[in-house]
Fold:
Amino acid sequence: MAKGTRNRSGYDGVVVAAPVSVPYERYSPEPAHWWLARAISALGAKSGLTPADVDGLCVSSFTLFPDTGPALTQHFGLTPRWLDHVPTGGASGVIALRRAARAVQAGDASIVACMAGDTNHVDSFRAMLTTFSRFSQDAAYPYGSGGPNGSFSLMTSNYMNAYGIEREDFGKLCVAQRDNALCFPHALMKTKLTLEQYMDARLIADPIVLYDCVMPCAGAEGYLVMREELASSRKLPYARILSTIERHNGFPDDPVQFRGGWALDKDEFWGLSGITPDEVDLLQTYDDYPVISVMQMEDLGFCDKGAARDFIRANTFTYDGTFPHNTSGGQLSVGQAGAAGGFLGMVEAIRQLVGEAGDNAVPDARYAVVSGFGIINFDRGLCSGAAALEGVRT
Amino acid sequence: MTDPLKRPPKKDPQKRTLVPTLPPFARSRKAIAFTAAAAEGRLALQVCAGCGHVTYPPREICPKCWSMELDWRDVADGGQLLTETLLRTSVNTYFRERMPWRIGTIKLDAGPTVLAHLHGDVPEHGRVRMIARTDKSGQGVLMALPDEETPNMADDRQLRTLTCDPKYRRALVTDGRTELGQCMAQALADAGATRIFVGIAEEWRPYPGSDELAAVPGVEIMPLDVTDTISVNELAAEMGDKADILINTAEYVRPGSTMERHGVTLARDEMEVNYFGLMRLIQAFGPGMRARGADGDNSACAWVNLMSVYALSNWPVYGTTSASQAAALSLSQCLRGEFAGSGVKVVNVLFGPLEESWRQPLPPPKVTPARLADTVVHALKEGIETVTLGPVAEDVVRRYKEDPFVLERELTQLQQGLRP
Structure:
């Protein structure tokens, strides 16, 4: 596959604004529609936009059945001239941004509301696993029905074996994320986590322990994509889009996943962005398990393949650390609200870049990288993506 | 090393019998072909007719060359364990009751990487031998076994969910008057069955081998006449709750086609044993077995039907017997549907001409009763549901799979050979 930047054009003049997070709940009796409604309501309140102003909509949700995007336009009183529904789970925050940015750039839409939300009824997680995908149904779920815990324990074990990374290293990331979460009021996890607690935690699927796993919950996230002039005229603080990539089924012949599609596209990613990894002020990875965060750090080029162990040992990962990472606590400490988990990092990055982060603000944050990873099909995650953003402070 | 299975304690009647829960049963239509092969104990995967690529999970198209001709073919059963885990939580009730559960990722010698149940004796990163079997939900699954036999290997608790091992189980053999029934009792005793109930109709009538049968360890002679509803029901009332394995050895075989008969008397006798006999047994024993599919180490696990391969397609030389066995096979399929979700397997053994008096003039190759009995026990130990025994049966089944309409023509065309 060709590497380098090819002839891709950048995203000049397109920006992202109005980061909103609807506070998560462990269980909710409300449907996904209610959570998405809260997200669009919050977008409206924050931006001053009305249903008549929004002419583009991009949605991601697992629990919206029987509805999809079109039904939401009627439900939410929108008459958009551009609509998309991205079923890419953990990569949906990046992929929605890519889709919406090109639509705005080409003039197919002026203002796109991107949002993701899911509910979590008491039995929804089990029900979702049962019917997640055909390959999983045929070839993964019958083997113990461990869900993602099972798939990722196999990957984690393989990765540890290959690269000599230790549980303490994963633990360091989890503990730092919890420290970040204690400064983020919406995080569901409210108590400090120590490395000792991590090391002694209950095994879920060897070698994965309780604190390696996200807690399924209900919630929603959203942001707006529009032209820079429009954001300025409406006095919305915004971030520019420097670069994005996406890739699906990246390395189909790897017997066990130890890398993702980022590794195919990282040269193009940095080439288009105009910045280097050293200049990045904060990284948001998709962290449904720490091993996946580690793969993203490596495959995006923050360190070499297999060098994450030393990279973790040489850095600190809190919002005020040497390598601020998952600054709101990530899914591990905030919770995994279905497809909104794929938006969490994106929304947090925008918040940091436009100066809306709270006590967990990364000082003088200008450049952020957001990475996504989604859809565990049979034995591996299929969708990967990343975006580089630059904050513009007025 | 696997801990040897202990003899299950006597059941406490005050405790609730576990209700059978199931591993996930939903599958795509393509995956049902994997299940059908697994029921025969075959490891079959899709092989691309265009480029030879072996693919898994089941697909509609070859991901390498986009040919849509993916044939199910038996593949090499060797593999290498790449990574493993011990699951300690599950969202599925069946597995949750059986935690922890060992699974692993295996690179098959045939090409694909698969997820599989993992036998306890497989060493870390070791070589494995793969089997495909039906699980408690009746669907095909993969399990990785140690490359070489280990002590008490069959007693592995994960493997035992796929098999119907007679060890420490109790079995009913429905007709002990024949050599077949007697061989069956002996084979079950050899396999470690603790109690072997053997049905004998009209006990006052002497039969050859009766003394030897009574001397087989664990054998208990019981009055049973499958043509008599009261007799069947009385036996079920007496020992139906101990029927972990039921093997229907009763058969009624006579040569002859329709026009060689006068009236329906013989045909009625055939149906009384081969079809109505089976139906009486199902009605009397089926509900109890279905409820005991998860009843500990000696749960109900298998119902075995023995049928001539001409149940698949009529052979006019034994025309009316073939018809009654076709009826029995159809009823057996119905039973599979009725047992679905119970964890009890329906084992169908299709055999070629048996070495016994009513098939005496047929030429070899034939199947001896001892071989048939051993085959049944082997199928139980292996957890195989569909068995074809003997060169004649294998030939007929092969032709049946190729095209049942052509087979029908082949079996009914004018031919030199035996006339009854």
About this structure: The CA atoms of residues 255 and 379 of chain A lie 9 Å apart. Chain A has 14 helices and eleven strands.
